[in-house]
Amino acid sequence: MVHHAPPPACGNCPIRHNAVCSECDADAMVVLERVKSYRVWPAGSRLASAGEPLEHFSSIVTGCATMSRTLEDGRRQTVGLLLPSDYIGRPGRRTSAYDVEAVTDVKLCRFERQTFERLVRDTPQIAARLLTMTLDELDAARDWAVVLGRLTARERVAAFLLSLARRDAASRGLAEPLAGTKLRLPLSREAIGDHLGLTIETTSRQFTRLRKEGVIAPTSTRDVVIPSLARLAAAASAET
Amino acid sequence: MVHHAPPPACGNCPIRHNAVCSECDADAMVVLERVKSYRVWPAGSRLASAGEPLEHFSSIVTGCATMSRTLEDGRRQTVGLLLPSDYIGRPGRRTSAYDVEAVTDVKLCRFERQTFERLVRDTPQIAARLLTMTLDELDAARDWAVVLGRLTARERVAAFLLSLARRDAASRGLAEPLAGTKLRLPLSREAIGDHLGLTIETTSRQFTRLRKEGVIAPTSTRDVVIPSLARLAAAASAET
DNA sequence: CGGTTCATTGAGCCACATCAAGAAGTGTGG
DNA sequence: CCACACTTCTTGATGTGGCTCAATGAACCG
Lengths: 240, 240
What we know:
Structural class of chain A: alpha+beta
Strand content of chain A: 15-25%
Shape of chain A: globular
Largest interface: A-B, 42 and 41 residues
Oligomer: homodimer
Number of strands of chain A: 11
């Protein structure tokens, strides 16, 4: 299996305008281009383990991964869904705080840890972008706390679909999802349950319920059409 | 009431070595000293409201505040407990994403928003410290997702007490809390419930239960002695 | 010392978990 | 193309942890 693919040029990288490099000028890009490397992980593989060394700072170029923690007795909670332009690892820490697993095949753009720490220190454009992204992630994590702490099972599933629809729209440069958006679910029912703090059975039942209510129109277990964004948002008891 | 207290010197500020300024050298401190201002808020007052303008970036000098969101039907979730050296607001955003309320009297060290954005841009020491603090907050928020998503009521209360004990120890420069630590709870039972995604009744019942089990030894409703940190950590089903 | 707020405790209920069975989808070899 | 195994999803039956409703108790305060 080919793990170390030849690095394509940054110019037509799909996450050029969203990733940690997005504020870099041409000079900075030359440096990045020189020190970056790519790595492809197959679906289901483990990219990092909680407490274990993590020697790279990586951005997701394509694919989807989850960040999770599993307790001794097997209870698992996903703390983050990683999509293109999201990053894995952090400057100033040599171990991963969570398990990271590829949900689909995942392509990473990586920097060796110390190299990246130097980049952050010496390139204000990267430091600024990394700060903005981290602040956005922090807001997202806090918003998710409301979902996990206070929403019902039905609301959680709706909130999950809403967040997927919004990220999909954002990645296409839209302010908000279009009516009739078709979503492909990257996660299995079990993985969705782990993300929502629910069991697989409850998650499945809420999908059925939302379908019967007409809030969603699944075309297969992994594909969902959103007839009305407003109705979905209402089901998620979202403010907006 | 005195809202605008005369700024004391940064040299003997209680959060000098933990706050966003902690990596600044003498030159940078001179600048901060010139543009900072203090403000004191009484217990119970609202420092910011979700969606409303927030014209300062502030650090908590003394006291305790909560960051929360309330749904239309009254359900409330606290997404962050703010203690000395924690910050409120973020560069690049003119509104607050959450409600912020003073739990005790709170003293803030503030910078006007645009002034602070300039400081972040021009002072690498501040930018670097802000990034580190934000990454730490992000990890804390993700850890909290495990608490809200997967722990039982008993485990949540234990996890809350454990996190308080650890922050108390850290603020005293200790690696971990001492055996027999006495904690003062800044929050009411209701506020603890809002933080843990529980009702006030369930929260109260778990305090009673942990007391009967000998995991905690309350001396009043607001004061708790931790006889054994290991037992508390076990009750929280914490990895460490 | 009565009024007010906050905390505790009890009784009953319900949303979600658990346990269990089938159904649908996916892949492999003949 | 089908047969079979295997995984994933759905649905049903039952149990239970935490919520709701309600009352009492404790602390604080004018």
